[in-house]
């Protein structure tokens, strides 16, 4: 989670009110942060804020925290409003950047008064957004410039690396693009994002002055903002237009909290034009009964409205629903639970009295969990070793390495790592990965897992369903279909269930040595010898036989 520093005096200047350090400890909770540390430096008190929500970059600065606290305390309420004046500034985007770094959005903020603390916050906010929300500048890279040193219009263009030469930030001499990637601190850190491309992205003004080489480094002569800067030009680039637009909204509204005046910029692409930033409020609708049912506290419709107005919402109550508008610098409202969370934050978690639940029954283990545990004991009795692998995976593991076409699975919208970018659909790939990491161990290797697989189900509220499955894999030089089938036979015998095998084709298994597992006419799993191509993909030199079955059908029949 992002951690960032703020000065107590700067926060209080933005809020318009002073507080004790102890009071600040509680106030930070309104901004989904915790006060991690307090220290004094040059006669000033500083706080280290620990943000607890990676989906709220608008709260990662003194401006964002102060704004949230002003609303939470009722000093202001409803939807924050920011005026945008149209400028005559134009940025032209080169179509050759399509496969390199295709999108850029821009804005001008005038009459900003930057002192030491304000400048620190601007730089820190840029870095935190680019590092966390922007996935180390891969998705979002931000540049800020002293507009008075620039000559619009601007050009975000693709340039051959050997033709690029400028003085990078914090340097005194010109360097070529490749020299920057090899020698400059930021070039070494972020150069891999563009290195090897036929063109590098470059932002220049009408006189050919280099502002920036996104996402790596700004220019020293035209890309440096100081305390004397009054008019700030902002450039944000990336792969997802919606994501970089959100980042732009966060930056410009933070500067507006310091008195800046926002001006829009026309961005011209080959096939379309846009005006940025776009601060049009977003909309959402929630059932009031849903809030009341899950809040755990008695709330009237008007109380819910008042609490939401303290969390940046414009609220209209109608037919048992709250029709909401919320700011364009937020992108975290995806479910009614997110609105409920805001209601409880505004109410104050510390104000909710805990209640001891009154239960008229005694607790006992869930029957299905007991069934899963019994299956585990059974498998251990067959001489297999239990493994526990991750539910998170990726399409390469689930499909490519298993020699089958890609299918639709549940993917994570903004994964921290591409390695953990989806929820698994079946378990055998996880067992194959485990075997591939243990090729140095003795054989035979006989493993099993009782674990969850996540499937898409449009009939569910979440559009997904989590299913419990049993997967078994055996690896040694002489393993056969028969050996793994004997284990399946024993499982079914102990559960008192009859099953059939039906011949099938599956890219993960050897043709003629793979079958569907059928119980009462329904397919509940698959069994077979793993295909040599799959073994090669995983770097496994031993034959492997495996099966996988859904457990709920077996549980229902054995109960």
What is the general shape?
globular
How many domains would you count in the coordinates?
A: 4
By CATH reckoning, the class of the largest domain would read Alpha Beta
What oligomeric state do these chains adopt?
A: single chain
Low-confidence segments, given as residue ranges, are: none
> In which range does the helix fraction lie?
25-40%
Description:
Tetramer of two alpha and two beta subunits. GO terms for molecular function: ATP binding; magnesium ion binding; phenylalanine-tRNA ligase activity; RNA binding. Residues 279-354 form the B5 domain. The protein is an alpha+beta fold. It is 29% helix and 30% strand. Strands 4, 5, 6, 7, 10, 11, 12, 13, 14 and 15 form a 10-stranded mixed beta sheet that branches. Strands 19-22-23-27-26-25-24 form a 7-stranded mixed beta sheet, sandwiched between helices. Helix 1 packs across helix 3 and helix 4 packs antiparallel against helix 7. It starts with a strand and ends with a helix.
Summarize the structure.
The protein has 559 residues and is of the alpha+beta class. The strands form 6 sheets. Strands 4, 5, 6, 7, 10, 11, 12, 13, 14 and 15 form a 10-stranded mixed sheet that branches.
Secondary structure layout:
Blueprint: E1 3-7, H1 8-15, H2 21-30, E2 33-41, E3 44-51, H3 62-72, E4 84-93, E5 103-110, H4 116-133, E6 140-146, E7 154-159, E8 165-166, E9 175-176, H5 177-183, H6 185-190, E10 200-205, E11 210-213, E12 217-218, E13 232-238, H7 241-256, E14 261-268, E15 273-276, E16 282-287, H8 288-295, H9 301-309, E17 314-318, E18 321-326, H10 336-347, H11 367-381, E19 385-386, E20 392-393, H12 395-400, E21 422-423, H13 428-436, E22 445-456, E23 464-475, H14 481-495, E24 500-503, E25 509-519, E26 522-530, H15 532-538, E27 544-550, H16 552-558
Parallel strand pairs: 4-7, 4-14, 19-22
Antiparallel strand pairs: 1-3, 2-3, 5-13, 5-14, 6-13, 7-10, 8-9, 10-11, 11-12, 14-15, 16-18, 17-18, 20-21, 22-23, 23-27, 24-25, 25-26, 26-27
């Amino acid at each position: 989670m992002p951690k960032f520093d703020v000065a107590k005096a700067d926060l209080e200047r933005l809020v318009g009110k002073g507080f004790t350090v102890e009071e600040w400890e509680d106030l930070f909770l309104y901004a989904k942060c915790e006060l991690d540390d307090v220290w004094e430096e040059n006669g000033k008190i500083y706080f280290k804020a620990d943000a607890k929500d990676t989906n709220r970059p608008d709260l990662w600065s003194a401006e964002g925290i102060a704004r949230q606290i002003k609303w939470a305390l009722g000093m202001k309420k409803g939807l924050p409003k920011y005026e945008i004046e149209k400028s005559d500034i134009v940025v032209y985007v080169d179509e050759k950047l399509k496969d390199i770094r295709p999108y850029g959005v821009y804005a001008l903020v005038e009459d900003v008064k930057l002192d030491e603390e304000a400048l620190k916050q601007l730089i820190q906010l840029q870095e935190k957004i680019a590092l966390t929300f922007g996935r180390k500048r891969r998705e979002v890279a931000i540049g800020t410039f002293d507009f008075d040193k620039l000559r619009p219009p601007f050009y975000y263009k693709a340039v051959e690396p050997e033709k690029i030469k400028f003085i990078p930030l914090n340097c005194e001499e010109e360097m070529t693009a490749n020299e920057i990637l090899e020698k400059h601190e930021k070039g070494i850190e972020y150069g891999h994002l563009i290195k090897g491309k036929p063109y590098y992205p470059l932002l220049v003004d009408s006189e050919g002055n280099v502002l920036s080489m996104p996402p790596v480094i700004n220019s020293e002569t035209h890309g440096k903002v100081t305390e004397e800067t009054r008019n700030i030009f902002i450039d944000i680039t990336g792969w997802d237009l919606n994501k970089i637009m959100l980042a732009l909204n966060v930056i410009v509204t933070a500067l507006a909290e310091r008195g800046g005046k926002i001006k829009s910029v026309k961005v011209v692409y080959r096939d379309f034009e846009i005006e940025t930033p776009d601060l049009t409020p977003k909309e959402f609708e929630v059932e009031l009964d849903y809030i009341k049912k899950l809040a755990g506290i008695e709330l009237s419709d008007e109380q819910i409205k008042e609490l939401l107005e303290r969390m940046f919402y414009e609220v209209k109550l109608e037919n048992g629903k709250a029709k909401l508008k919320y700011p364009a610098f937020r992108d975290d409202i995806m479910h009614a639970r997110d609105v409920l969370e805001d209601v409880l934050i505004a109410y104050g978690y510390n104000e909710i009295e805990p209640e001891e639940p009154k239960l008229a029954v005694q607790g006992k283990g869930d029957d299905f969990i007991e069934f899963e545990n019994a299956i585990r004991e059974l498998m251990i009795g067959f001489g297999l070793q239990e493994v526990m692998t991750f539910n998170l995976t990726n399409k390469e593991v689930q499909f490519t390495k298993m020699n089958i076409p890609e299918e639709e699975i549940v993917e994570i919208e903004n994964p921290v790592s591409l390695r953990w970018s989806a929820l698994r659909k079946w378990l055998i790939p996880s067992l194959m990965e485990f075997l591939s990491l243990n090729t140095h161990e003795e054989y035979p290797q006989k493993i099993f897992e009782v674990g969850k697989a996540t499937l898409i189900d449009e009939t569910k509220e979440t559009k997904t369903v989590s299913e419990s499955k049993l997967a078994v894999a055996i690896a040694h030089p002489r393993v056969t279909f028969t050996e793994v089938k004997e284990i399946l036979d024993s499982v079914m015998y102990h559960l008192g269930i009859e099953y059939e095998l039906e011949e099938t084709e599956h890219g993960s298994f050897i043709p003629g040595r793979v079958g569907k597992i059928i119980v009462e006419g329904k397919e509940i799993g698959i069994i077979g010898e793993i295909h040599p191509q799959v073994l090669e993909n995983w770097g496994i030199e031993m034959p492997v036989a495996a099966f996988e079955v859904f457990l709920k059908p077996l549980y229902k029949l054995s109960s």
